[in-house]
Design a protein that fits this description.
The protein is an alpha+beta fold. Helix content is 32%, strand content 33%. It has five helices and eight strands. Strand 1 and strand 2 form a beta hairpin.
Length: 182
């Protein structure tokens, strides 16, 4: 399964992307605001990628992890995690620092949202971020997501500090309206 955008190709994330996934996901500076990153080793990255492969093999995956490819080069990842009812999807994204700030995260995520609405019948999208993660907040706002709440208790892997977190959300009917206006 692949998703094609104007500039990008999204392909199932798997072990062939080990080195490049570790390059952006194991970078403490790039992942300082993330709950489950940085990867601590190549072996931990490999285990994650194997879990992604196993999820892709299911008849109805609950997690969709895509490699973001630019001209065939793996530059990041985008993900959708479905709730038990499969009507709400939590979005996530990460790019290698060399490719940030060019609209790739929003482009890849928008394509994933379109896929989720048309192929999976997702009705609502959510995304979380550390309150200090301004680039992620900008992506959420660019996607049309709205700030729903600010809560405490966030624990980012790369820090011992308890942090604050934003929750953004968007209804699928708004995704369709935005997609038709492009």
């Amino acid at each position: 399964m692949e998703i094609i955008t104007e500039r990008l190709r999204l392909a199932p994330l798997n072990e062939q992307y080990l080195q490049t996934a570790f390059a952006y996901g194991g970078d403490p500076k790039n992942t300082k605001y993330m709950v489950f990153l940085p990867f601590l080793s190549l072996e931990e990255t490999r285990e994650f990628l194997r879990a992604c492969e196993q999820e892709w093999e299911k008849t109805q995956p609950t997690a969709y992890e895509f490699a973001v490819l630019l001209n065939g080069v793996h530059i990041g990842g985008v993900s959708l995690y479905l709730n038990e009812a499969r009507d709400t999807g939590e979005l996530g994204w990460i790019l290698h620092p060399e490719h940030q700030g060019r609209g790739y995260a929003a482009e890849a995520t928008r394509a994933l949202m379109d896929f989720a609405v048309t192929r999976l019948s997702v009705q609502r999208f959510e995304a979380h971020c550390d309150t200090k993660n301004l680039p992620s907040r900008r992506v959420m706002e660019k996607l049309g997501m709205r700030l729903i709440s600010r809560t405490g208790g966030r624990k980012n892997r790369g820090s011992d500090e308890e942090r604050q977190e934003y929750l953004y959300a968007l209804d699928a009917r708004d995704v369709q309206r935005d997609a038709s206006s492009c």
